[in-house]
């Protein structure tokens, strides 16, 4: 999955040869400046980036070809970098700052759900230490979520970086800020490693998830600092074998599996492991959220070593999600949630209910484990509570507030 060692070596080579453009070809480096990028932060450089990408990707003789974005400002209109490439690995080295258009009109006639997309590539390594700035305020100001009565409001906005149908690839050491919507989307991928990112957007920016994974397998997400207006990390349908660790989250909505099954589809999510998460001022800690109309399963999820500071819902399962919050009628279907553990949760909750397992009365949650949980209220001498609906399992090692699980 890696490539970080190669990136470090290439970064040193680039630093040593940046003043000598004639050396690039011998090092298999493709500098976007050599392909016409103006790097003034005002003129669209997407065509130059595509030329550099095509030269690197299609070169049959280049070993570990590297597209280099120097330490300058580059405005890019929406662009798709496509594979497959000739080499086993290809590097995309961001030393400068990539800027999104500030006007939503740049997406007219194009896919409004993406800005920088990488598609059908094996061995892709995107690395920093540069910046990707989504400059998303124009999209936020016309979001239907916050402006439902605005004529022409938009429900869909561009994801900053989207990896689609990529394999054995990595994303590391990048600073993301102010994406119009989700910052990083992994879709239909296998064998992706994401590490050492910072992701920032205002707490009230709509749908600005940090990282969302959909229909992908075999991911490692490690050492990420996230503060946004939505989930720090979210897991979507048809996803399995994901390891998430060493995450700082806040503000935001915590670590979520879901929402799942919104279209009535069959959900398949399993083998999700999340550990060493530090939450500060978030809406949720560990959450599983499924729509009533869905079916299928979520199974084999482990949440452990969560450290909560002023978190509203440290542990929450909502198996009864519907369009009218709080007015969901019982349905004779649902997503089966089983073999889920919450262990080593410590810190403070800002609401009275620290553990809320709201399972379907028709499709129970089974095999739930609560272990070594010590949560306290932010209010002095105030006791927290647990609420369970049709949640079955057991508790170990001391649980506060007390477990409400049925055996």
UniProtKB/TrEMBL annotation:
<dbReference type="InterPro" id="IPR012334">
    <property type="entry name" value="Pectin_lyas_fold"/>
</dbReference>
<protein>
    <recommendedName>
        <fullName>Polygalacturonase</fullName>
    </recommendedName>
</protein>
<keyword id="KW-0134">Cell wall</keyword>
<dbReference type="InterPro" id="IPR011050">
    <property type="entry name" value="Pectin_lyase_fold/virulence"/>
</dbReference>
<feature type="signal peptide">
    <location>
        <begin position="1"/>
        <end position="16"/>
    </location>
</feature>
<keyword id="KW-0964">Secreted</keyword>
<dbReference type="InterPro" id="IPR006626">
    <property type="entry name" value="PbH1"/>
</dbReference>
<dbReference type="Pfam" id="PF00295">
    <property type="entry name" value="Glyco_hydro_28"/>
</dbReference>
<dbReference type="GO" id="GO:0005975">
    <property type="term" value="P:carbohydrate metabolic process"/>
</dbReference>
<dbReference type="GO" id="GO:0004650">
    <property type="term" value="F:polygalacturonase activity"/>
</dbReference>
<keyword id="KW-0326">Glycosidase</keyword>
<dbReference type="GO" id="GO:0071555">
    <property type="term" value="P:cell wall organization"/>
</dbReference>
<keyword id="KW-0378">Hydrolase</keyword>
<comment type="similarity">
    <text>Belongs to the glycosyl hydrolase 28 family.</text>
</comment>
<dbReference type="InterPro" id="IPR000743">
    <property type="entry name" value="Glyco_hydro_28"/>
</dbReference>
<keyword id="KW-0961">Cell wall biogenesis/degradation</keyword>
<keyword id="KW-0732">Signal</keyword>
């Amino acid at each position: 999955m890696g490539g970080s060692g190669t990136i470090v070596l290439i970064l040193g080579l680039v630093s040593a040869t940046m003043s000598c453009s004639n050396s690039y070809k011998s090092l298999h480096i493709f500098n976007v400046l050599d392909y016409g990028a103006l790097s003034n932060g005002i003129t669209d450089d997407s065509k130059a980036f595509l030329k550099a990408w095509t030269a690197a990707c299609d070169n049959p003789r280049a070993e570990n070809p590297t597209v280099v974005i120097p330490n300058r400002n580059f405005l890019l209109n929406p662009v798709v970098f496509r594979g497959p490439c000739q080499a086993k690995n290809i590097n995309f080295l961001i030393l400068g700052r990539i800027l999104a258009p500030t006007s939503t009109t740049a997406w007219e006639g194009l896919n409004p759900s993406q800005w920088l997309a990488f598609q059908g590539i094996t061995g892709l390594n995107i690395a920093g230490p540069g910046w990707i700035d989504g400059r998303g305020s124009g999209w936020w100001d016309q979001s239907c979520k916050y402006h439902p009565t605005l004529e022409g409001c938009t429900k869909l906005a561009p994801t900053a970086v989207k990896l689609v149908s990529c394999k054995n690839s990595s994303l590391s050491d990048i600073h993301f800020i102010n994406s119009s919507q989700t910052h990083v989307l992994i879709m239909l991928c296998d064998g992706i490693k994401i590490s050492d990112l910072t992701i920032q957007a205002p707490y009230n920016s709509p749908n600005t998830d940090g990282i969302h994974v959909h229909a992908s397998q075999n991911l490692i997400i490690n050492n990420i600092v996230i503060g946004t207006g939505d989930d720090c990390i979210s897991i979507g349908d048809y996803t399995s074998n994901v390891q998430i660790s060493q995450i700082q989250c806040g503000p935001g909505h915590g670590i979520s599996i879901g929402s799942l099954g919104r279209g009535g589809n069959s959900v398949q999510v399993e083998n999700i492991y999340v550990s060493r998460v530090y939450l500060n001022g978030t809406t949720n800690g560990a959450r599983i959220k499924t729509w009533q109309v869905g079916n299928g399963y979520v199974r084999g999820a482990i949440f452990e070593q969560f450290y909560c500071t002023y978190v509203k819902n440290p542990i929450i399962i909502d198996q009864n999600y519907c369009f009218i919050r709080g007015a969901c009628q019982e349905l004779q279907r649902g997503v089966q949630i089983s073999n889920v553990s919450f262990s080593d949760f410590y810190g403070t909750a800002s609401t009275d209910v620290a553990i809320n397992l709201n399972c379907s009365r028709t499709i129970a949650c089974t095999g739930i484990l609560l272990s070594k949980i010590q949560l306290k209220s932010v209010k002095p001498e105030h006791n927290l509570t647990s609420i369970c609906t049709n949640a079955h399992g057991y508790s170990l090692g001391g649980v506060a507030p007390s477990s409400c699980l049925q055996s």
